[in-house]
């Protein structure tokens, strides 16, 4: 696929022998089982991502930060793409918009994961220099929100201790610690 308006390849996800890849302004799919059969098809002509590490595979859909700086789920084609951050209320004020909160100059610092039916995406707030806001979307009850001052620089899903129950660890942007998530009420003491 040739670059449009300077678009570049951002990320790819393999799902059931199908390779989807995100560019800045589109989502495409590579079809075929051998090189002679390979063909690229545009899966969504009007939605891409500026943040490569925001693209994460969930159970039956992928999640990502869109090129309009809203969060989406993607099920394989344009018709299955859903805006998931439309109910976002910052501090309970439904008139607040998520778009101006995200620092567009810090897209390389955006990180995300999918763990325990939660899509989590940490990003830098406008006017800040470190990841201090974390967007979450609960796929079980379709709710979303923001967590402030979690300061996540990376997510690690760890399964060596209990393979049937994967643990979530996060790296801290402010302290350089690796933190366990969901261990007690005070997560700051879980280093």
Q: What is the SS-derived class?
A: mainly beta
Based on CA inertia axes, which overall geometry fits? globular
Strand order of the largest sheet: 1-2-3-4
Tally of separate helices: 0
Proportion of helical residues: under 10%
- Main beta sheet: strand number and arrangement? 4 strands, antiparallel
- Quote the distance from N terminus to C terminus: 45 Å
Regarding quaternary structure, what we see is single chain
Topology:
Elements: E1 9-15, E2 18-23, E3 27-31, E4 39-44, E5 56-57, E6 62-65, E7 71-74, E8 82-83, E9 111-115, E10 118-124, E11 131-138, E12 143-148, E13 152-158, E14 167-172, E15 178-180
Sum this structure up briefly.
Helices cover 0% and strands 41% of the residues. With 191 residues, it is mainly beta.
Structure description:
By secondary structure, this protein is mainly beta. It has no helices and 15 strands. The protein has strands at 9-15, 18-23, 27-31, 39-44, 56-57, 62-65, 71-74, 82-83, 111-115, 118-124, 131-138, 143-148, 152-158, 167-172, 178-180. The strands form four sheets. It has a four-stranded antiparallel beta sheet with strand order 1-2-3-4, with no helix packed on it. A hairpin with a 3-residue loop joins strand 2 and strand 3 (27-31). The model has no long low-confidence stretch (mean pLDDT 84).
């Amino acid at each position: 696929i040739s670059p449009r308006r300077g678009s570049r390849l951002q990320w790819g996800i393999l799902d059931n022998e199908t390779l989807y890849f995100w560019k800045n302004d589109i989502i495409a799919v590579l079809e075929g089982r051998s090189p002679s059969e390979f063909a690229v098809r545009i899966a969504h002509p009007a939605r891409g991502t500026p943040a490569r590490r925001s693209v994460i595979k969930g159970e039956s859909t992928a999640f990502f930060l869109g090129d309009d700086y809203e969060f989406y789920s993607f099920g394989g084609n344009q018709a299955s793409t859903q805006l998931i951050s439309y109910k976002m209320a910052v501090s309970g004020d439904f008139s607040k918009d998520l778009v101006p909160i995200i620092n567009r100059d810090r897209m390389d610092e955006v990180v995300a994961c999918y763990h325990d039916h939660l899509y989590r995406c940490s990003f830098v707030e406008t006017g800040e220099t470190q990841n201090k806001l974390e967007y979450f979307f609960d796929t079980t009850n379709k709710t979303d929100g923001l967590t402030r001052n979690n300061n996540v620089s990376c997510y690690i899903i760890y399964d060596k201790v209990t393979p049937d129950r994967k643990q979530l660890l996060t790296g801290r942007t402010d302290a350089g610690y690796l933190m366990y998530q969901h261990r007690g009420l005070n997560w700051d003491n879980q280093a």
